[in-house]
Amino acid sequence: MPYAELVATLRSAGCVFAEDEARVLTEAARDDAELAAMLARRVAGEPLELVVGFAAFCGLRIAVAPGVFVPRQRSAALVRAAAAGLSSGEVAVDLCCGTGALGAALLAAVPGLEVYAADVDPDAVACARRNLPAERVFLGDLYSALPDGLRGRVCVLVVNAPYVPTDDIALMPPEARDHEHRVALDGGTDGLDVQRGVVAGATDWLAPGGRLLIETSAAQSSRTAGLMTAAGLAAEVVRDEDVDGTVVVGTLR
């Protein structure tokens, strides 16, 4: 299919970034027949990342899977903030890991980092094991999934927990609300339910001076910071305008 026709078809289907998507599809397809099949799936509303089987994130190709939260570009803000000051041999944990994109990006940024990950969704864990050392990805609810030997050793704990208020899920783009598991999106009435659990347990797992970094929205950031302060962490809100990302960093005193 001619490139111009591919772009026009995508644009007619409502794809805002039709040129970019056309390039990704063209590069991913092995032949014209596969390109046509991929195009049909995308026009039908399937997320681009699921169509091609990966998401581009922090210079990496992250394997994705049906139902698993697709990494957003704004999460690069969390990776950048977390990587600052990390060294080879230190321990990082990607909690509520989804595809494991955050952990994979940290490992790429800091070679030799000891990265672990966990998620409550079995599909997410299976996917993350494709992007991280499989033996270091665990299934379970928050900290209960982690090996007890990590307690008090974690230098950086990165978390993109679901933070969409329950009533707002219906307002999300169909690529998210129709193709990602509810557990990856629903943050409860105010969007902070999972964050509360994360913050409450963090001090038991962080090393002295260790940091907890939580992605959140700009509107919710002051409340996320308040949770950290109440738990005894020194909290700071970090904005990354380049990717429109908001991260709250809590440091164990």
Description:
A seven-stranded mixed beta sheet has the order 5-4-3-6-7-9-8, with helices on both faces. A two-stranded antiparallel ribbon has the order 1-2. The protein contains ten helices and nine strands. It has helices at residues 3-12, 18-28, 32-43, 48-52, 76-83, 101-109, 122-131, 174-177, 193-205, 221-230; strands at residues 54-57, 60-63, 91-95, 114-119, 137-139, 154-159, 206-216, 233-240, 245-252. The longest helix has 13 residues, at 193-205. The chain has two domains: 3-45, no CATH class; 73-252, Rossmann fold. With 253 residues, the protein is of the alpha/beta class.
Text of the CATH class of the largest domain: Alpha Beta
SSE topology string: HHHHEEHEHEHEEHHEHEE
> What fold name goes in the CATH topology slot of the largest domain?
Rossmann fold
The proportion of strand residues reads: 15-25%
Q: How many domains?
A: 2
Structural topology:
Layout: H1 3-12, H2 18-28, H3 32-43, H4 48-52, E1 54-57, E2 60-63, H5 76-83, E3 91-95, H6 101-109, E4 114-119, H7 122-131, E5 137-139, E6 154-159, H8 174-177, H9 193-205, E7 206-216, H10 221-230, E8 233-240, E9 245-252
Parallel strand pairs: 3-4, 3-6, 4-5, 6-7
Antiparallel strand pairs: 1-2, 7-9, 8-9
Helix pairs in contact: 1-2, 5-6
